[in-house]
Specification:
The chain has 457 residues and is of the alpha+beta class. Among the domains are: 88 residues, Uridine Diphospho-n-acetylenolpyruvylglucosamine Reductase, domain 2 (2-Layer Sandwich); 115 residues, Uridine Diphospho-n-acetylenolpyruvylglucosamine Reductase, domain 3 (2-Layer Sandwich), CATH 3.30.465.10; 111 residues, Alpha-Beta Plaits (2-Layer Sandwich). Helix content is 37%, strand content 19%. It contains 16 helices and 16 strands. The strands form three sheets. It has a seven-stranded antiparallel sheet, with helices on both faces. A five-stranded antiparallel sheet has the order 5-6-9-7-8. Strands 1-2-4-3 form a four-stranded mixed sheet, with helices on one face. A hairpin with a 4-residue loop joins strand 15 and strand 16.
């Protein structure tokens, strides 16, 4: 229910000056995430929490008055997971930015507002490494990464966010703060509640602190860049590579993406290539030489037009930057509907071919990039929002891509989350029994249904 002015005054008064804001001008930037959901509402208030206690105060107030709460990190989400609701409140964790690192235990205790890049930097200063690396690592927050179980470029070898979460502090809808897990690499005590909250997209609680596992530094990678005259050959090379090894990175860009990146960066990418693969190995000695040779051989055997292998870290990083710039470069070409579908790697050729057919049938541009080594693709549907017919075709294609992924035994989201934009397709993937169990868990933890209503379930 929408709070009255008097009820809102209670919230503002219960928090320090400047923590809760009600000015529509100041609140406007908290209405959307990067998905720019057109259904975003104007919240009644935004709580810019600075500590766990502020989050508790906000949730106790929201529970008492049955007001919807949308948790928010840096606002870089791509599925509408932090779209504001009219009459609800937004709880932002952007000001919660403390971090401490224990180099002996190899853990970092982090508040959710810290950016992924800042955690990496702090770990590196202690001779350690935090692997999860979304393409938006420089601007996305750790809290958002955990809420969506974010992935990234190196996940094919090193895993996703949940693989590095050892402990959480999470505030429930009724204001209770739970401590889950701890700085231990092995812990089988009780139900795995820590993992329950990872990827829950703010529907079960608000994360206010996380303990992350860190690793020794990554060895300097060696890089292979291969261009292909057709996308089928490129996807066959991906299958060939992953059937023999687990590379440190294996990324895919199609011609549309390559040209957009080249327009942006002017780094000499092959504009004529139908697809470009960027692969890395970070092993050492003869193992590195063998893996590099196997990647080159697989690309050549599958019909690559050109294959470049380098052990120069700077040259390799330049191609990694090109891949990370794919979405920003495509955003300059028009409005995007961003997909996040994935399949088992052997089904990747069928998924790529099917997406190309959808693009042709619907007469829309779909640029395709992928964390190819783990089968996670990002079809980017480009359209002109001022053209009603083009917008309608793009929206149809958006649904058809998810339908295709489900038909191939895949997923509607590999790392961006379901949010609000993909919620209508979730049941088709997981089935009604899983949906029923998920709703029962949600009802048990958030009986009033105030946490991120409309998202996921």
């Amino acid at each position: 229910m929408e709070p009255t002015p008097a009820v809102l005054d209670e919230l503002v008064a219960a928090l320090p000056d400047g923590v809760a804001i009600v000015d529509p001008v100041l609140m406007d930037k908290y209405r959307w995430d990067r998905a720019a959901d057109p259904d975003a509402g104007m919240p009644a208030a935004v709580v810019r929490a600075e500590c766990t206690e502020h989050v508790q105060t906000a949730l106790r107030w929201a529970s008492e008055h049955r007001v919807a709460v949308v948790p928010r990190g840096a606002g870089t989400g791509l599925s509408g997971g932090s779209t504001a609701r009219s009459g609800g409140i937004v709880v932002s964790t952007e000001r919660m930015r403390d971090i401490s690192i224990d180099p002996l235990s190899r853990v970092a205790v982090v508040q959710p507002g810290l950016l992924n890049a800042e955690v990496k930097k702090a770990a590196a200063a202690n001779g350690l490494w935090y692997p999860p690396d979304p393409s938006s690592f420089e601007i996305c927050s750790i809290g958002g990464n955990i809420a969506t179980n974010a992935g990234g470029l190196c996940c094919v070898k090193y895993g996703v966010t949940t693989d590095y979460v050892l402990a959480l502090e999470v505030v429930l809808a009724d204001g209770r703060a739970l401590k889950l897990g701890g700085p231990r690499l092995k812990d089988s005590a009780g139900l795995s509640l820590t993992k329950l909250f990872v990827g829950s997209e703010g529907t079960l609680g608000i994360i206010t602190e996380v303990t992350l596992r860190l690793l020794p530094p990554q060895h300097p990678p060696r890089t292979v860049v291969a261009s292909f005259a057709n996308t089928h050959a490129a996807t066959e090379a991906i299958v060939a590579i992953t059937s023999r090894m687990r590379p440190a990175m294996l990324e895919y860009m199609d011609r549309t993406t390559v040209n957009a990146v080249e327009d942006n960066l002017r780094m000499g990418l092959d504009r004529s290539a139908a697809a470009l693969l960027v692969a890395q190995t970070d092993t050492e000695g003869t193992t590195a030489e063998r893996e590099l040779a196997e990647i080159v051989e697989a690309c050549e055997r599958c019909g690559a037009d050109e294959v470049l292998a380098t052990d120069d870290p700077r040259e390799g990083e330049a191609f990694t930057v090109a891949r990370r710039q794919a979405i920003p470069s495509m955003e300059k070409k028009g409005k995007l509907l961003l997909e996040d579908v994935g399949v088992a790697v052997p089904r990747l050729p069928a998924l790529v071919a099917g997406i190309e057919k959808i693009a042709d049938a619907r007469q829309v541009t779909i640029a395709l990039i992928a964390h190819a080594g783990d089968g996670n693709t990002h079809p980017l549907i480009v359209f002109d929002p001022s053209d009603g017919a083009a917008t309608a075709r793009a929206q149809v294609a958006f649904g058809e891509v998810m339908d295709l992924a489900i038909e191939l035994g895949g997923t509607i989201t590999g790392e961006h989350g379901v949010g609000r934009l993909k919620q209508p397709w979730l049941a088709a993937q997981v089935g009604e029994d899983v949906m029923d169990l998920s709703r029962r868990i949600k009802d048990a933890i958030d009986p009033l249904g105030i946490l991120n209503p409309g998202a996921v379930l």
